[in-house]
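Objective 1b: paired records.
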Amino acid sequence: MAKIKKPLIFFLFALLLFITGMAADRSLLNQSIFSIPRDKLIVLDPTETIQVKVEKVIDGDTIILVGGERVRYLGVDAPALMEKTTGLEREIGKQAYEFNKEMIEGKTIELEFEPKRNTRDYYGRLLAYVWIEGEMVNLELIKNGLAIVQEIEYLNRNFFYEGEFLQAQKYAQENKLGIWGE
């Protein structure tokens, strides 16, 4: 009987730690999908594009849609607007934010998704290519040196516009634009 109790107690303790750890992790998320009412979540077919209105630009690669959904731009990484960010990185982060804001805040945009891939990231944000009036915002950020191509290792896969993104990044590097400037 004592042999059964120890493993059972250990298992229950480990399960309790796991559950409380998951709850603590989710409580740290700011505006996750769990804080949006279920009837407001966007349910989509990843093979289709959707038109939505932007409520607010958060930074160079993240926006909030009317209704509360957050969208993280696929394939790009712009410097974060955080207090710990300094120097050129902070300046480029501000420029990326302003560029993004001017392009799309308050406007109707089109979201394109990667078919056969997850449409949300770990934080519950939609992952999308963002289009306005025939221009892809993700690509424009890279082309202007305001964001870099997200590392393939981070994405754990290649992505549809990878070639165009790498070509735009090379252009920004060669022309010393944004983060590639001296």
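Objective 1b, second protein:
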Amino acid sequence: MADSFYQSTSMPLGIIDAIDNSILVRAGWQDICTRFHRVHPQTLVNCQESDNFIKDHLKNKEVCQYKCKNGLWDIGMSITISGKHLATMFLGQFFYEDENLERKFFVGHGEKFGFDIDLYLKALDQVPHFTHEKIEYILSYSQSFVGFITKIAESALANKNSDVQLREQNQIMQGILQHTHIMLPFLIANLTISGRIALMPIPAKDVLLFRGKIILNSIPIRRTMCFSNGCRYRRTLFY
């Protein structure tokens, strides 16, 4: 999907983890970044500073634009799942068509960090240029794309939570089934006058499942005499 986005818009795309800044997805990243800025340790610091600046400034707004110290534009959008900023979608690197490209800056930049100037400037010439209007169109589409990602993630999270609850319920049922042999003695034996025994289970409200163990809910042990359908029997609770 990221590659299709890049092919249709010519806008480089990246999704970076908001916690550890690891790159989760990328498409169309420019050589000037992948072969130069993100390779040299000092210019890499500039890249990471740009990522962090955008991430920090997304707390109060949906979109943040920033021109990094390496001279390129980035736009960031927060991917927020259940109220938590988990990742940032970056558009860039690019230039605006109406800005004055300071080529001397990049020559000096390349010399300062020991880049091959010819290759560095060739990579510079490959960086895409956009009008402000085109950027607005791309932003509108990208925000819808982020919303789509968010809905999928939140739906998956909700399903996961439902699965967890279902597994917990299944574990409780399994615990009950596994301890059936413990429950069997907790029966009311109905001894009729004729000597027949009828077993009646203890009501569910009188049985508790505690940490995987079946326990009684304070049922008193007693013997009673009563009548049922004209048949007198003795009721005794056995352990």
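The helical segments are 2-9, 31-37, 41-57, 103-112, 117-125, 132-178, 180-183. Residues 132-178 form the longest helix (47 residues).
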